[in-house]
């Protein structure tokens, strides 16, 4: 097995659902030993988010569902009651050998258990402690609960997503995946890596990291947010139209649709030739990209009419030869059969006790010297409890059995 970038880092992961687990999964993919702490019997909230579930040998659904599995590969699961004094004591013992603690409880919740940053810093001064909340550790909304869909509205994402005003079906729209959670998870992993570098390579100390979904959502709006900050103009929904080079949009064909981005004047000239309408190069409405952006609706309608005259494959072939950035609108079955996705190995095998041929998504990170080559299935609830307590804390079988009898594990 190849060495991995983070193979000497240990993470105690108290996060649940999506944002925190997505961040810790990124660390686990890179080789960190991520010990996921779940509630006995109940487990991570994501385990009850519904179908589809893996089936057992008799075909019955289990608690191993796709949502949970999407963000928990390469981890170890420990079922531990942190509401109990003994459970809290075991957490503090585990922290002594950890580099990172992650949690996404409500602001102040873990302080009553003695598992807040200051308490665990006293146990391990080098600990990096990352808290993930909806609104951050301070401010008027700090105690307010929230989920991804709420933040998609609050951060402004829905205001610039969906069918434009005046068109059929107009109105704000949620992005399909829980994208604010995923942005947050990426920021979580990035912040932890920076804190580890500060501590281990720059002579620093452990520290506290405060990550909020609202902050991450606003940050992810990037150029949309900067348009407002620069001009004072509030960006509007544009459907599938782009915000820069035009024409950029989804265009209907005779048997489906394609997505095209004509990012500059050179690509626009090539596009006009590729679709057999060289006269559009000299149309004063479209002569430069500045003019095309001003007349975005007009140019979109012109190319809508052109692309409707032939099939997806016909146009993608023409556009590909001309070097125009373009592609099909794939569903997920088509994505995993897409030649480039197959070549890049975007689905990988991670044998699971209930499904030996379980496939999971490959990490998008590719390292030349420390490649990610092996994937372990998302753990079943408490799958590693006894091993972790024995190996990391030195508890014998009798002590572990007493913990089980007392409902601690």
From TrEMBL:
Enzyme class, first EC level, given as a word: transferase
Record-listed E.C. numbers: 2.8.3.16
Domain of life: Bacteria
GO molecular function: formyl-CoA transferase activity
Keywords on record: Transferase
Record-linked InterPro entries: CoA-transferase_III_domain, CoA-Trfase_fam_III, CoA-Trfase_III_dom3_sf, CoA-Trfase_III_dom_1_sf
Residues making up the signal peptide according to the UniProt record: none
Annotated Pfam families: CoA_transf_3 (PF02515)
Family matches, as PANTHER family: SUCCINATE--HYDROXYMETHYLGLUTARATE COA-TRANSFERASE
Name of the protein in its database record: Formyl-CoA transferase
Species for this entry: Sphingobium chlorophenolicum L-1
